Amino acid sequence: MFILGATCNGVGPAPPCALMATSPSSPVKGGHANGRPRSESRSGSVAHNSPRPSLNSPRPSLGRRPSAMTEGPAQESKPPDYLMLAILSCFCPLWPINILALTFSLMSRNSLLQGNVDGARRLGRNAMVLSVVAILGGIAIIVAAIVLNRECKTLFKLRLYI
User: Fold this and answer.
1) CA 110 to CA 114: how far, in whole Å?
2) Which of 9, 49, 70, 157 is 20 to 30 Å from 2 at the Cα level?
3) Beta-bridge mates of residue 39
4) CB distance 33 to 27 below 8 Å
5) Beta strand residue intervals within 4-150, DSSP E
6) What value does the mean pLDDT take over residues 53-57?
7) Beta-carbon contacts of residue 100 (< 8 Å; ≥ 6 apart)
């Protein structure tokens, strides 16, 4: 911005408005010291508008960008909690393991609701492993009980005939 009659070459006096307009270190009214415009945030304080708010703002949550929980790709990559598998494992006779599987499944769901995707993924994987172990162990116990029951009946019949 040039003002007629003002010399800004350092030889003569320059008016204060000319120094403000030409000096890069002096803040412009309503703007930032580096020439960037300032904008008002939700809290009423002045915040910077930039494509990356985490670099310039000490509180990036004041920006008007949507949070990570409302984005489309985050919902698509939701880790499974295996709740139905854990409930199914509760019908097997390996009771301490299937209750742990149900507990891990519920903890996985709660972690996901709190926004901890990595924790939800880890807890869901633990719930799945414990559920599969409980189901396979329960099937093994049932099969062993049936086999032992039949063997005992045949041994008992043989003793009666002797």
Assistant:
1) 6
2) 49
3) 47
4) yes
5) 38-40, 46-48
6) 54
7) 130
- Could you give the C-alpha distances from 17 to 28, 29, 82, 121, in angstroms and in order? 10, 11, 69, 61
CA distance 16 to 23: 10
Sequence spans of domains, the chain = 16-62, 79-161
| Helical axes 117-161 vs 95-113, angle rounded to 10° | 170
Residue 156's pLDDT is: 74
- What confidence tens digit (pLDDT) does each residue in 104-156 have? 999 999 999 999 999 999 999 999 999 999 999 999 999 999 999 988 888 77
Cβ neighbours of 105 (radius 10 Å): 26
CA distances from 54 to 62, 69, 73 (A): 10, 17, 21
Tokens representing residue 53 in the block: 């708010």
Predicted TM-score of the model (pTM):
0.51
| Distance between CA atoms of residues 63 and 60, nearest Å | 6
